[in-house]
Amino acid sequence: MSRRGFTLVELLVVIAIIGVLIALLLPAVQQAREAARRMQCTNKLKQLGLAIHNYHDSFGTLPAGAITTATASTAAGDQGNASWGWGALILPFLEQQNMADRLGVGKIPLDDYVKATASTGITLDDKSLVLNAFICPSDAGPVVNDSSKFSRTGGNPFDTTPANLAPKSNYNGCFGHNRSRVWDNSQYKTVASGAFRYSGGASKADALGLKDITDGTTNTILLGERAYTLKQNIHFYPGTWIGCLAGSHEDCHEDIWFTLRGPINGAQGGLNFTAPDTDTVQLWSRQEGLSSVHPGGVNVALADASVRFLSETLEWSYGGDGDSTINTVSERLASINDGLPIGDF
Known about the structure:
By secondary structure, this protein is of the alpha+beta class. The chain has one domain (9-334). It is 24% helix and 16% strand. The chain has seven helices and 16 strands. It has helices at residues 8-59, 86-89, 97-103, 110-114, 149-152, 283-288, 329-334; strands at residues 66-67, 83-85, 144-145, 166-169, 171-176, 181-184, 187-190, 198-199, 221-225, 229-230, 234-235, 239-240, 243-244, 257-259, 297-302, 307-311. The strands form five sheets. Strands 14-5-9-15-16 form a five-stranded mixed beta sheet. Strands 8-1-2-13 form a four-stranded mixed beta sheet. It is globular, with a radius of gyration of 22 Å.
């Protein structure tokens, strides 16, 4: 009596067909998951934008880019006073009043934490300080940032022994089309074309209001993304919502701000995937620019709290420190009052 069954050829054909179906299905599943993560990222930027608007409603200004409650340094630089960032200032409007009180935002100098002199018993690498509101779900980097200027205390970003760690933020504030600094009252003072500016001491004299965004809130970028790694472990260095290592120095760009003087995702800069420290995209571009794990570009929140996806093919041009020229689409989107609003991008 003969038995019915599969021949070896039939079995191999079935296995091959199943393999092809899995190969076709897996990318679709991954795309669906990424679409969901991108939507979550969009919602987080939306909530941050609304929190900034609520801050504005309460205080009459946008939050300062950075403030220090310590005595101003007379030799400002990488070892200058650590300063609370805009992300820390809006904590009460993200239902995080307890976190703000716990840290003493604006009351205890952030420099005290960096120099381990705070009496609170809190260290900034405490994972209980990690806030999901500041983390893009697509970014797989550590939630306690080990790659920002803050963590390196002015050292090389590839140093494997960071001096300070703080909770990560994939979302930074727009400093403008470029970065620049001037010496003012015995300290470096950042001068911006964007919405976030350094405010010396506890003063808000340099903070702006929505009325100062004369290009229109729907035409001006307020917040944007920066990834931890992108493509074959190329580092793009997200910041931290806590603040920056030296608030009186332009290196705040690597911790809480970004500029649009470099290519998004390094896409137009000729990425060389040999190693992070030999990448052909300039280090400053990866440390202070925009980047994300989302394919093709980044999410940005506009000053009206709406969120748009910015293509990595957006026109840009490099400008050196202090360059006041604004002549590309990206630079105009970053500037609040250049008189050349971009309405469709």
